[in-house]
Amino acid sequence: MTESKILALEELGRRLADHRGRGQRIVLASGCFELLHVGHVRYLEAARREGDVLVVGVNSDASARELKGAERPVQPAQDRAALVAALASVDYVVVFDSATVTPLIEALRPDVHAQGTDHAVDFLDSIRQRFTASGSPPVVRTASERFLLVRLGSLGDIVHALPTLATLRAAFPRARIDWLVEVCWQELIELNPDLSNLVPIDTFAWRRSLHRRGTWRAAFNFVRNLRQVGYDTVLDLQGLYKSALLARMSGARVRLGFHERFLKEPGASLFYTQSVTPPAGRHVVEAYLAQAQAVGAVTPTLRFPLPTSTDDEAFVEQQLRQHHLRDFFVLSPGGGWGAKRWPLERYALLHNTLARERGWRCFLNLGPGEAQLADEFRALARVARPVHFPLRLRQLVALLRRAKLLVSGDTGPLHLAAALGVPVVGLFGPTDPARNGPYALQAERAVVVHHPESGPVSYKRGDKPAAAMLAITVEEVKAAVDRVLEASGG
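User: That's the sequence. What structure does it adopt?
Assistant: Structure tokens below.
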């Protein structure tokens, strides 16, 4: 039975033609398969689930030597082929002589190529280019059963990573896809239907107590549990030393991250096995999607699932009734960087104008440590007392869904509202709105106010508003509000 699966290329071509005639989907996997182990078995089982017939190309002794070195392979090609053919998931085996699998793909024309870990990311592009003139390329998949996304924070960045999770889920519906995230942000994604498991971590608590033995014990146990999952592929969307190190400690053989030129901490790239170059001049959402594409999820799925619980909805409804909020807009004047803040007194002037002209109340959204802004803002607001009450993350989602409008600088609530389809006006100063602006699926629901001539693009944290923020006037923000509300029917 095993020997009957091992075919010459010409005979294999005839067999596959029969399968295609019956409408069956052909999958090709390939590799040297030295000393067959559980990783190989998982790879081939995952590849088999991509179609109806699995063909495995095994490198000949000469091509294995070219790939692995003069002392390899340790087993002859026929023995390696026989071991692969013995697996129940494998239908056919062919030994091929080239160091790359491209000639085999050209000869067999599979519907899917299940990419193993011996190929670089740019292999996908080379395959597509070779097939452009002669017909449709195969779908290229990384045969992975277990993915780990690493995006530890913060709010806006997590929102921008949601389409990457959705894209992976659409491409790999049966895979385990987990997300490593700081515990303070886990509530935002723990109900996400595209997610298999949440992996919360509290690096901030660890750093505050490095001198304690219990901290090191907790870190050791965390890494041990992470490695026990057996992740095949990690996508590090964060690009910092800590996220890259966590990716490395996961034990995954394939670890993707951005090329060092695009990292805030370039040395993090040392922990990756494959580097991805994001598309030039595009939004960070599309940069993240480049990593999903690199593992075979080639069709973007632009969704922002942000589910809430019945308790979240009930809490918000109760608070809105208690504060007599029916038609309301949201102002979010805070933010972690002083350089990205618009002056509070200008928010107050905008509030007075909108409350007077629209007849709407204002909900003042504030983050941790910003409670004092509520009193300062109320002292400046002259029309209709603004409302503020504390909210957890999913409660904020529930409230924003009910809002008429949100105005904010480059902050998490801005990106959250845009993802929910709420009309937004984003006030941008030092950061680049082309890269970090509100990513609305309906473009007319997001307007950006920006004066790039007033200062260079900068991602350095500053305590005081940047010159480009101070250049934004109340009148032009009010005009932007009118535009976005008219365009969205508000």
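The first strand starts at residue 26 and ends at 31.
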